[in-house]
Amino acid sequence: MLVKEAKEYGSISKGNTKMPGTTYAVDSFACHVGEMLSKKAGSICEQCNMRRLQKIRPLVDKGYKINLEKWQRSIGSSIKWVDAMVFQIKRYCSDGHHRWFDGGDLQSYEMLMAIDSVARQTPQIKHWLPTKEYGIVAKYFKYNTEPENLTIRVSAPMIDGKPPKRFKYTSTVHKINEPQGVECEARKRNNNCGPCRACWDKRIRNISYPKH
């Protein structure tokens, strides 16, 4: 597969200034649960940073929307999408860590199964998938066991809320309350992960991010 061919199915990014490795994003305005939460006071999505970024940076907005459109065109033939993601992650992820959805979220159970396939075909890469799509993740775990190199972290919906109980790996956002579990310290490093890889680490049950 050539790079041009792979990018016909969506683009993996290697230019995230905060975190290591590679990332993948889709349109943040297409989130299902996120759209509902964006209308709820006190929710994590009420003031979505990624939606704000898309509004002020047209090129980012265009890239995220294109990735979503290319995924949607792949529905029903997701094997090619999987092949394209595997090719790009192997080519670009020199750090060994990949994040799904630094913008947007899971679109469907089929998409999560496709990501599962990508992770299984890249065992040398650690994959982190933060999500608020509780129903999709619950269905996935009903029929599947995640590969060892894929950490699916389900996010609490509300600021200062408790971690979702029915999922093993979770994340929360704190503003007034004390952090729960391990606190993200990126803000102490100029909003950069630095050497920390806690989000990918299955030894850590909950990551708590400070509201910013």
Give descriptors for this structure.
212 residues, alpha/beta, single chain, 15% strand
Counted by DSSP, the helix tally is: 7
Helical percent range?
A: 25-40%
* Proportion of beta-strand residues: 5-15%
Q: Please report the total strand number as a whole number.
A: 7
Distance between the termini: 41 Å
Enumerate the strands of the largest sheet in spatial order, edge to edge or round the barrel: 1-2-3-4-5-7-6
| Mean pLDDT rating | 95
Would you tell me the structural class of the helices and strands? Answer: alpha/beta
Major β-sheet profile: 7 strands, parallel
Q: Please give the radius of gyration in angstroms.
A: 16 Å
Shape field = globular
Uncertain runs: none
Q: What is the succession of H and E elements? A: HEHHHHEHEHEEEE
Describe the 3D structure.
With 212 residues, the chain is of the alpha/beta class. It has seven helices and seven strands. A seven-stranded parallel beta sheet has the order 1-2-3-4-5-7-6. β3, α7 and β4 form a beta-alpha-beta unit. The chain is globular, with a radius of gyration of 16 Å. 39% of the residues are buried.
